């Protein structure tokens, strides 16, 4: 008989905590929530202070029986779900369900699953925090009110089976608004002008035109660039200013949830949902050889950059021992958290910096190892000394024109020895006149000799579409959602087919844009970004006890109810307002057909339904993708198209010219002496894609997986293939059966000791 019963959410967490708790403790898992709102009805009594009507989940019958049996004869029950609002709500439901056991029921809280943290949590259990429970309850009730009352409205105006969400719909609106910006964007031409000069030491200096007559230079077309070039060739070039400054680059703060998801996508190409799933595994605990099972990172849902003193001291000792005293800053670094941060937990960090990525490599899966390496590198680098660089700016005058060059060199690598900066996907690493290297030595007043000039045409670019990383960043900056919801928001709009991922960018589907237009017209309040951000702030106030949850839900529901009533009364007008007309007429009555959505995708239908029920399939016009090659028969461009049997290359003038070919992979055939290239093909029987030599039947080499132009490090075979397995994750492998060497993608810089 155990003296105490500890209840957690997952079996993995239960196993780890069970080893640390010791004798006298029994640890079991509740498998998440045991109660929730009913699926078949609203489950919220709006007339009685929005009282939620919770039901016990049928799927948890076996777990609940085990909980009741385990509670018999125990002296106390300790509830240990995750330390956030959701975990507090799980504990609250468990306490209510087990109240009949007649023993003290307390909350056990810890930020990391290590022996010291568990022992400390066992020594100071607390009461359940009702404010945290109320904050979670308010969010759940508001989400239910929107989801269960707006979704039926979408069924009758767009198509059956659609759903809406209080926060997800706002995120979808942001993606659609960005798409509208891109479509409205007017491309403008501009030119840049570089001049190559020779110094007195006959060294080359490249400078860029930046000012004319004291104003920023603007070259709208090639003619303007040519006029300036002709003028510059008649001028004398002289150095007017030389500035050299030392630039200090401070380390990045340790990860919080949003930055972990952003960097997980940018560096590892992990979707936000995958990043959080792998991080959960690292947090709950893994077996590491003969050592006791332990959690490898601290809790991964946090918005605080705070680090405990003990962890900082361990990191400082490691840095001094591994890199030297010069890499150790004088004081312990601290990083400010964002204005809206709750600061409930520490930043995400390894539970011990002594567990380096290399020391754990053989105990972790590929995905676990890569994410752990990213977290470990970022934390240790955050405790290192700043990097120092020297930036030199040279300004050159030529008549009324000013030209500039900027170069830099590193003086001390500091934290970048472990965590290299990675330029943002949507920003250039260098400025327009920065060369990124050392500049030749010149003196003020020195004359320079004109050697040549280069002009280059550019076009202004529209704002980029969101990636998962930039969307999470935008949600955080605008105050939409919280650390525990970012991954769910992104995965939900992708799962509902409101958004599609193309080459890493999030594109709104036609369905997503139609739903957004309708919701913006019908529910202007709840689709407002500022309104949603204010509601998040109100939820935070519930957590701190400043506001009552019923008052917050009422302030949300009253404007929502008015919008809902107005939307229901003007349903037909709203439906017409968001319909997209086609250029085709109804075959029966002549009306202009409109685009509608069904279970099998979009189609064209008569707007006079149900009086006229004419419909026809919508054939989306394919946009051919140029290959950069010319047709060998007529010289027209070759493009990639999609046919009944997959992708193929065809002449742009098809069907006038019927030249076709297979899609090239850009990888040469690995067979010695074969001049062929591997092309994408599709099997006739099962339709599976494979990659074969285009010299067939003279060369029959083929592989099932996509080839990569990289030699095998073991046997030297000239290519590898892409593979992904549950155990190893995404990796490269030698296609030769007698070799089969596995090559892991590179870990972020600095993971190795």
Any idea what the CATH architecture of the largest domain is?
Orthogonal Bundle
Average of the residue pLDDT scores? 87
What Rg is obtained from the alpha carbons, in whole angstroms? 31 Å
- CATH H-level name of the largest domain... which superfamily? Topoisomerase I, domain 2
Instruction: Please count the helical segments.
Output: 18
Q: Would you mind describing this structure in some detail?
A:
With 753 residues, this protein is an alpha+beta fold. It is 32% helix and 25% strand. The chain has six domains: 4-128, Rossmann fold, CATH 3.40.50; 137-185 and 464-575, Topoisomerase I, domain 2 (Orthogonal Bundle), CATH 1.10.460.10; 189-250 and 387-459, Topoisomerase I, domain 3 (Distorted Sandwich), CATH 2.70.20.10; 257-382, Topoisomerase I, domain 4, CATH 1.10.290; 579-617, no CATH class; 662-743, no CATH class. The protein has a six-stranded antiparallel beta barrel with strand order 9-10-16-15-12-17. Strand 26 (646-651) and strand 27 form a beta hairpin. Helix 5 runs parallel beside helix 17 (549-569) and helix 9 (272-284) packs across helix 12. Mean pLDDT is 87; it is low at 428-432 and 747-753.
Brief sketch in words of this structure:
This protein is of the alpha+beta class and 753 residues long. The chain is 32% helix and 25% strand. The protein has six domains: 4-128, Rossmann fold, CATH 3.40.50.140; 137-185 and 464-575, Topoisomerase I, domain 2 (Orthogonal Bundle), CATH 1.10.460; 189-250 and 387-459, Topoisomerase I, domain 3 (Distorted Sandwich), CATH 2.70.20.10; 257-382, Topoisomerase I, domain 4 (Orthogonal Bundle), CATH 1.10.290.10; 579-617, no CATH class; 662-743, no CATH class.
